[in-house]
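ok, trying the design again with the full structure, not the truncated one.
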């Protein structure tokens, strides 16, 4: 199957239409009233399909959408088989309403929705993989560097925090800032190994990347406070410093990740890693990352469902100081 050059509407699964045949004056465009998910496909199989399925269920419930998620997942698997290698991007929006403006008519089952799918040809890099439990492997990208960005992401009410909603303007502006930094770095020294930018929310906590979630380790031995108010003693420097490129990278030392309770996107790969490390010696601890912690970072990686793990060798702070790992 050739990747589609246009969006395909899956709402009527028996009679698919393209965007050129359907009105685009919908609530997704008008109000960002919906959500999306992006799925990698290898050998005709959707990567982390069950986690994407859970996203369909949780997001439809949160946004009060009547989504037949089982039928939709079956349709996605058919498209994955046809695509074989690449990426599927699914966008779900609330259907047009009888009332004008932002409002919609509540119903017990939720609003009807429209589902749109686009397939893209791309190579999902699996050259290097980290083994997890149950013969699960996570792609690991080459080492690169990251920078702290001045852009900030919004804090949201609990009903919306963590969702991959269509409103991603804060990420759009942050990505533009990152691209500008990359361009200036390339012009100044001829090299460009910066792959991601670290973002704060409006409270000042460092939460995620422009397109990814973030995990980190701390090098000092002081007691740090977790959100549950328990005191956790971080491992010493030797245990914290995981061997880069080693199969024990994820299971060596204590990893932390930021909460998605008020900002950010609770990503698929983030949940995969949390679940896989939940029964190990060092389960992931959800903990806010603040300015005072940045100089104590000993490891940092970003992750998403397409690229897997993106390990960093250094982080440039807003001050221009560089923290190496």
């Amino acid at each position: 199957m050739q990747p589609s050059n246009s969006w395909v509407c899956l709402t009527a699964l028996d009679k698919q239409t393209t965007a050129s045949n359907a009105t685009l004056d919908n609530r997704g465009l008008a109000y960002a009233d919906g959500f999306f998910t992006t799925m990698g496909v290898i050998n005709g199989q959707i990567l982390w399909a069950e986690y994407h399925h859970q996203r369909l269920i949780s997001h439809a419930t949160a946004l009060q959408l009547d989504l037949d998620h089982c039928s939709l997942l079956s349709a996605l698997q058919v498209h994955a088989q046809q695509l074989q290698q690449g990426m599927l991007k699914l966008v779900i929006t609330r259907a047009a309403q009888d009332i004008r403006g932002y409002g919609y008519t509540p119903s017990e089952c939720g609003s009807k929705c429209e589902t749109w799918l686009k397939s893209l040809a791309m190579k999902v890099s699996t050259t290097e993989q980290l083994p997890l439990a149950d013969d699960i492997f996570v792609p690991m990208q080459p080492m690169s560097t990251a920078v702290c960005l001045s852009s900030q992401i919004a804090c949201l009410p609990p009903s919306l925090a963590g969702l991959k909603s269509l409103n991603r303007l804060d990420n759009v502006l942050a990505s533009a800032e990152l691209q500008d930094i990359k361009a200036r770095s390339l012009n100044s020294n001829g090299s460009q190994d910066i792959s991601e930018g670290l973002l704060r929310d409006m409270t000042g906590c460092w939460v995620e990347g422009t397109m990814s979630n973030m995990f980190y380790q701390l090098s000092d031995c002081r007691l740090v406070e977790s959100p549950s108010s328990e005191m956790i003693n971080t491992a010493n420097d030797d245990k914290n410093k995981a061997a880069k490129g080693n199969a024990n990278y994820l299971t060596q030392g204590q990893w932390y990740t930021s909460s998605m309770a008020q900002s950010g996107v609770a990503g698929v790969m983030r949940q995969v890693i949390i679940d896989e490390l939940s029964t190990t010696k060092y389960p992931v601890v959800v903990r806010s990352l603040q300015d005072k912690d940045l100089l104590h970072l000993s490891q940092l990686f970003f992750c998403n469902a397409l690229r897997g793990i993106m390990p960093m060798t250094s982080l440039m702070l807003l001050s221009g100081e560089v923290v190496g790992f």
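Keeping the full-length input from now on. The two ends are 43 Å apart (CA to CA).
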